[in-house]
Specification:
The chain is mostly helical. 80% of the residues lie in helices and 0% in strands. The longest helix is centred in the middle third of the chain and has 51 residues.
């Protein structure tokens, strides 16, 4: 569970940074220039990429460990959060409101699944606070790289720089589990 959570944090963080920084190029690539205004909505939903990775990892754990009822309760709470935030936010902010409601609901879902997983076993995920602090540093490194490159280059280039900075920091800070680093070719 600890290694799965760490991999979810790394994969979700990497893709979330890319989505936030390169939202416009992604939308234009997928839908054409006519859809460029939707980039602001995608940018707002960037954090959901990280929560989705964690929710899937923890959901698989709950299912495998036979805690389906707890999972159903979590999903119902997430759905209720979506309605509670979606109705007023969509009424006030249209598509941006829907994006914010999705983020809020996914954060609630992630939180309730986190607590459900912690109730199983010894109450820990095996991801120590020091790891999370180093992870935050890697995220900041990606964000700083993106901001620095955005000043002089297009968003797609900034997203690549952010991804490289995050990945480099993840390796330098020893965030990548040994099972993954063992798969990398040696010099």
């Amino acid at each position: 569970l600890a290694h799965t959570t760490k991999l979810a944090l790394l994969g979700g963080g990497l893709l979330a940074i890319i989505v936030v920084v390169a939202a416009r190029p992604i939308v234009v690539l997928l839908g054409g220039e006519d859809f460029a205004p939707a980039a602001s909505v995608l940018r707002l939903q960037g954090p959901v990429v990280l929560t989705i990775f964690l929710v899937y990892a923890w959901t698989a754990f709950l299912v495998a460990d036979g805690h389906r009822r707890a999972l159903v309760r979590c999903m119902l709470i997430g759905l209720a959060a979506l309605f509670a935030t979606g109705v007023p936010l969509i009424a006030q902010l249209d598509a941006e409101g829907a994006a914010l409601a999705a983020v809020a609901a996914d954060v609630v879902l992630m939180a309730v699944i986190y607590f459900a997983v912690r109730r199983v076993g010894d109450g820990r995920l095996g991801v120590e606070p020091g790891y999370l602090a180093r992870y935050a540093v890697a995220l900041v490194a990606g964000g700083v790289a993106a901001l620095g490159v955005l000043a002089v280059a297009p968003a797609a280039v900034a997203a690549c720089a952010a991804a490289a900075a995050f990945t480099g920091a993840a390796f330098a800070l020893r965030l990548v589990p040994s099972e993954l680093t063992a798969l990398l070719p040696r010099r």
